[in-house]
């Protein structure tokens, strides 16, 4: 049995409307926490949790091309990291140094090491016990973005603080 074109169009429109209503109904959970991640509460996690550090403080700082100098934005993030780490002294951290894919492997390993070292030095200057910190350079071996463009390169020029 063939369905007429106007009826077919109406059925498709009705199906689309049902789909949109279903998606909209799922997008809001009654009594959900207004902030945070899931049911972790305001700030993105229980106070002193690794999740709180990641969401509320931030785990990475970025660098300019061929540079291991901290930008004002990076220093602001590291100030928040130092305050959190000084408050929750039970955690050890690893600072990972990274570079974008341009340049040789050896150059990028050395650049990543300089970036990690500058972050370690900054955190210790803010009172974080150096015995709690280790560092490692990954150079260009662990990109978070892959493309041949500044938008990817800028994401890969970073130092990441991993709470252990």
Protein architecture, described:
Keywords: Cell cycle, Cell division, Cell outer membrane, Lipoprotein, Membrane, Palmitate, Signal. It comes from Devosia yakushimensis. Residues 50-164 form the OmpA-like domain. It holds the Pfam family OmpA. The Tol-Pal system is composed of five core proteins: the inner membrane proteins TolA, TolQ and TolR, the periplasmic protein TolB and the outer membrane protein Pal. They form a network linking the inner and outer membranes and the peptidoglycan layer. The protein is built from five helices and four strands. Mean pLDDT is 84; it is low at 24-41. Strands 1-4-2-3 form a four-stranded mixed β-sheet. The chain has one domain (46-163): 2-Layer Sandwich (60s Ribosomal Protein L30, Chain: A), CATH 3.30.1330. Helices cover 46% and strands 13% of the residues. It has 164 residues and is α+β, with helices and mostly antiparallel strands. The radius of gyration is 23 Å and the shape is flat. The longest helix is centred in the N-terminal third of the chain and has 23 residues, at 5-27. It has helices spanning 5-27, 50-57, 72-87, 105-125, 150-156, and strands at 60-62, 93-98, 133-139, 158-163.
Task: Jot down its keywords.
164 residues, 5 helices, Bact_OuterMem_StrucFunc, alpha+beta, cell division, palmitate, OMP_bac
Number of helices: 5
CATH class assignment? Alpha Beta
Provide mean pLDDT, rounded: 84
Low-confidence blocks of residues:
24-41
CATH fold field value: 60s Ribosomal Protein L30, Chain: A
- Helix and strand run: HHEHEHEHE
Helical coverage, percent range: 40-55%
N-to-C CA distance: 65 Å
Question: What class would the helix/strand composition place it in?
Answer: alpha+beta
* CATH architectural name: 2-Layer Sandwich
What is the CATH homology-level superfamily?
Answer: OmpA-like domain
Instruction: Report the strand count.
Output: 4
Q: In percent, how much strand structure appears in the residues?
A: 5-15%
Strand order of the largest sheet: 1-4-2-3
| Number of structural units classed as domains | 1
Overall, the morphology is flat
> Measured on Cα atoms, how large is the radius of gyration?
23 Å
- In this structure, how is the largest beta sheet organized? 4 strands, mixed
């Amino acid at each position: 049995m063939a369905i007429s074109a106007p009826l077919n169009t109406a059925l498709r429109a009705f199906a689309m409307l049902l789909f949109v209503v279903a998606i909209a109904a799922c997008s809001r959970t009654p009594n959900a926490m207004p902030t945070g991640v899931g049911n972790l509460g305001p700030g993105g996690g229980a106070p002193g949790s690794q999740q709180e550090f990641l969401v509320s403080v931030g785990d990475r700082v970025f660098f300019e091309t061929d540079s291991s100098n901290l930008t004002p934005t990076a220093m602001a993030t590291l100030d928040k990291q130092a305050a959190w780490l000084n408050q929750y002294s039970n955690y050890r951290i690893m600072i990972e140094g990274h570079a974008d894919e341009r340049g040789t492997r050896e150059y990028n390993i050395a650049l990543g090491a300089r970036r990690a070292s500058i972050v370690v030095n900054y955190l210790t200057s803010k009172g974080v016990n150096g015995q709690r910190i280790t560092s490692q350079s990954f150079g260009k071996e662990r990109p978070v973005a892959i493309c041949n463009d500044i938008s990817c390169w800028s994401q890969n020029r970073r130092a990441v603080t991993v709470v252990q």
